[in-house]
Amino acid sequence: MELSDSQFEQYQQDGYVVVEDLLSDPEVERITDRIREYVTGERTETQFDRMLEPDIKPDAFEHEGEPVRKFEGVGLAREDDVFADLAHHEDILAVIEQLQGPNIDLLRSAAMLKPPQVGSEKKFHQDAAYYPIQPRDHVTVWIALDEATTDNGCMRVVPGAHTDGLIGHEAIEYDTDITITEREYGLDDTVALPMEPGSVLFQHCLLPHYTAPNTTEQWRRAFILSYMRSRSRFTDDQPPEWVESLHIAGDEFPGCV
Ligand SMILES: O=C(O)CCC(=O)C(=O)O
Fold it and tell me: Which CATH number is correct for 5-55+65-242, 2.40.50.100, 2.60.120.620, 3.50.50.60, 3.40.50.2000?
């Protein structure tokens, strides 16, 4: 697996590239089965942060745990065999190596679920704003596990805006999210990226992006893995405790994130 020259150029120029059908149907099914086990409470052993949707309609779900907005934690890739295999997926790592070089750490691992009817929006943000690390070029890998459409909240990106650097963000009310406040982005600034299950979006961490609420009866599940260079360092002397990393490939470097 390798990005073609035009795909590589698109990543540099627009800040993203979608690789279609990177995962096979059985691979997607293995991941969605595991997600379902966690969401319904059938499987409990792995430690991670779980967040429910803010607007839960009573009786819309069979199981109490179903309106899960996301679950997140690098521990997912450390402790769970399915997510560990995904974090070490040969074809994903081949692309990351092309973009970042051979020394790779995992910075984030998260299931982003947008359940039917109640799946909420994710406001405009840059992933780099959450992570005080340099160089500011980590790559977010967004894996579609269901068909992602404009109606159920597919990814929308502002092409080329990663070259503007880090833009001002502020905290928003719900959960720990932050959103861009220094600029006013709207849907007209974005390109929508509908994707089939198994297709994978590689996104520069400075690329502003947004996902709309899920107004349909279908789930829009995705899995996120963010990779950085193993030589990455915190930008502050006092790094946040919640940033965790997992070495994935190549060499490790003392004193780095
Ligand atoms: O999957 C989504 O709806 C948005 C995910 C996202 O942009 C993020 O968590 O940084």
Answer: 2.60.120.620
